[in-house]
Amino acid sequence: MTRAVIAFGANLGDREATIAQAAAELADTPGVELVAVSPVYETPAIKLSGVDHDAPGYLNGVLLVETELAPLALLDVLQGLEQAHGRVREERWGDRTLDLDLIDYGGARFADARLELPHPRAWQRAFVLQPWLDVDPDAVVAGRGTVAELRAAASDEVRRR
Q1: The CA-based dihedral angle spanning residues 123, 90, 49, 40, taken in that order and rounded to the nearest 10 degrees
Q2: Is 99 a catalytic residue?
Q3: pTM of the model
Q4: Is 80 exceeded by the pLDDT of residue 88?
Q5: Where exactly are the structural domains of the chain?
Q6: Which of 86, 59, 126, 18 is nearest to 26 (CA)?
Q7: CA distances from 53 to 44, 56, 87, 143 (A)
Q8: Catalytic residue among 96, 125, 136, 151
Q9: CA 20 to 30 Å from 68, out of 1, 50, 52, 137?
């Protein structure tokens, strides 16, 4: 079994219900054991152009899982859950009903056309780092440092719900 960190976010629809249902569905996935669910944080939307206070805000957090699935197989599960919950991919960093990102997979470094591990921007994002720190205070982002140090340096706005 490998420990994986999955970031979740939603800013459209019934955000709380969608996140709860997706977490339950992930926990019911063969080869995946849900270990921890972080507190939920509210954050403004971030678009390619920067923070968009006019867009609906996000609920964000992380899930820790233990999995027998390989990284790309886990990514397939996550993308299937997104699609089942109405995720539409029309605009990069656009509004969404559900976003599930594989952030870390046992500290592995990996890159191909579909997946980069660790997630290439997670080390800069308080909306990933803060909930990750809440559930795993000793976590490390491979090649970047401890989550605690990275969180201290991240300046994006996060507010616990």
Answers
A1: -40
A2: yes
A3: 0.93
A4: no
A5: 2-160
A6: 18
A7: 6, 8, 21, 32
A8: 96
A9: 137
